[in-house]
């Protein structure tokens, strides 16, 4: 077992160096936001998708676009608006008058990197066009099924402070995102650097430092990273605590209307493995699970009206859960 762990550590260290090269290229454009960039790389390595939430003007779109520019893969940006149609995303069938046959016109979802910008501005019918793509990595257009690119990575943005002209994301859609990452304002010192870069022409363009094939290789390796059975039980217990808080001594049952799905357990394990990889390790520790727990769980816990009235947030509940569930 020790020899296997050593080999996993060696390979993890190599892949970690590659991902850090990507991060360094992103940092040539994006100032600060280290944790956000890390979460994007972790989700990409684990084969998950990310919902990025933050106020306007803090470089959500720029961060995602910059990451895609560091990887040699196709990129599509879909600007979600109230008048968008599902066919504008997945594509449609068009009749050709010359030969009397129908042909398929594929939509922008047929790319490796998909930026769903302001995803909550489109109605649920349009948002649901991504359901099959995000889960099954395929798209059905009028009865014909087409596989999507590999890797396939959806990064969606939404604005938390604006409600006019927006639609709540369907729970089935939200649950398909591995992480919900909160992006905050930059620090004062970071904002001064931003001014230097974007008001005096110092901003640089990132270089492509990794092929798409290497991302696929990393995603396969993430599943090989060692996680003991106790770690998996710990992940399952954290998710179970969102459904049965009383079982863990938590007085939170009146705040939670619906707990996390089994996808949360899967993404906790995969996210912890990818987190360990980013740190150059071939094995998972409980701290790896704790580090990504909030990002995995915060959009999967539905609050009651009582919680909203008392201004109890999902992050508050997750913190209590992490303190209550025994660590292996």
From TrEMBL:
Gene Ontology molecular function: any one: ATP hydrolysis activity
Domain ChlI/MoxR AAA lid: start-end pairs: 254-321
Annotated ATPase AAA-3 domain residues: 49-179
Native organism: Methanoplanus limicola DSM 2279
Pfam families: AAA_3, AAA_lid_2
Keyword Flavoprotein: no
Matching PANTHER family: MAGNESIUM-CHELATASE SUBUNIT CHLD (PTHR42759:SF1), MOXR FAMILY PROTEIN (PTHR42759)
Superkingdom in the source lineage: Archaea
Keyword annotations: ATP-binding, Nucleotide-binding
InterPro entries, alphabetized: ATPase_AAA-3, CbbQ/NirQ/NorQ/GpvN, ChlI/MoxR_AAA_lid, P-loop_NTPase
Keyword 4Fe-4S: no
Stored SUPFAM superfamilies: P-loop containing nucleoside triphosphate hydrolases (SSF52540)
Protein name: ATPase associated with various cellular activities AAA_3
